[in-house]
Amino acid sequence: MQCKNCGTPITGREIKCPGCGMSIQNQLRKKQPIQEYTYPPVAQITPSKKKDKRAIGYILFIIGIIFIIIAIFLQYSHLVNKEKDKKKKEPEKEEVIDNGYIYEGYQFIIPDGFKVTKSDKYGIVLSGKDIIYTIDIDQNNSYTIYKNDFENYYKELVKDPDKLNNLYLTVLDREYIIDPIIEGEEQATMYATMNEKYNTFTGLVVKKDYSKIEPINLEVLTNILKNVKLKESIKEEEDNSTAIKMYAFKKEDFIFE
Questions:
Q1: Helix, strand, coil % in the chain, rounded to nearest 5
Q2: Can you give the pLDDT at residue 84?
Q3: If we measure between CA atoms, which residue out of 45, 206, 53, 44 comes closest to residue 125?
Q4: Residues 52, 49: Cα–Cα separation, whole Å
């Protein structure tokens, strides 16, 4: 290293130049030229157009699937609602068995050997070889009302407890009110028995010889009433003021073959 002033060789550790006395430190503190570096330009990364197209394609595909699912759901809901409306407008078909007969919303199973007809006076008429049953439904008066009315009726006209006890007959665990209707030497028997809480089965029992009935004569009727099924909604009313059903016996209405 040399002194910049006189050219005397120096080590750089001296304070002053031994040749000319110029300060060595001042020479070392002079600014060195700053080297400027030029960096190569950084390449700009641009997104691939193919990737953009794929992403857009996937999004459109998913949106399409969603629209298809919504369309299927709306179509299904429409069909379900349409079917419900159709069922509301069209009454349900009754499931009627071969030996069944529907009357006043109830289905009765008609036993073999009986022919069934409908009568405005008696309800349904089941005609057998040796016996005829009629069945009607009082939807306005309960069986309790029938019992009270019949007991009051017989208490006023007949002061005989035995007669009142004979008013009831139990067959196969079913209780009946029994009221003979006598015409000369011939008779039929009116009955009343519980249907539901507010309804009562009523009708007549007529034997071929028009004689008094026995408990065995009510067994077929009891089995018929035991298997009755409600097929339609019935409006039930309790303690209705409508009078109970009563019947008059006319032999010409009950002809045996």
A1: 30, 25, 45
A2: 75
A3: 206
A4: 5
- Please answer whether residues 202 and 191 qualify as being in contact, where contact means their C-beta atoms are separated by less than 8 angstroms: yes
Give residue-wise pLDDT tens across range 58-114. 888 899 899 899 989 888 888 888 777 776 665 544 444 567 899 998 999 999 999
How deeply is 241 buried, as exposed, middle or buried, from its count of CB atoms within 10 A (0-12, 13-18, 19+)? Answer: exposed
Query: Which secondary-structure segment (H or E) carries 168?
Result: strand 168-171
Nearest to 96 by CA among 85, 86, 111, 106: 106
DSSP at 40: P
Rounded CA-CA distance 64/240 in Å is 65
pLDDT at 122 over 80: yes
Which residues, including other chains, have CB under 8 Å from residue 146's CB and lie 6 or more apart? 138, 177, 192, 200, 202, 244
Backbone angles phi, psi at 178, to 5 degrees: -115, 125
- E strand or H helix at 182, and its extent? strand 174-183
For 191-232, the pLDDT digits (tens) are: 999 998 778 999 999 999 999 999 999 999 999 999 999 876
Residue 35, Cβ density class (10 Å: 0-12 exposed, 13-18 middle, ≥19 buried): exposed
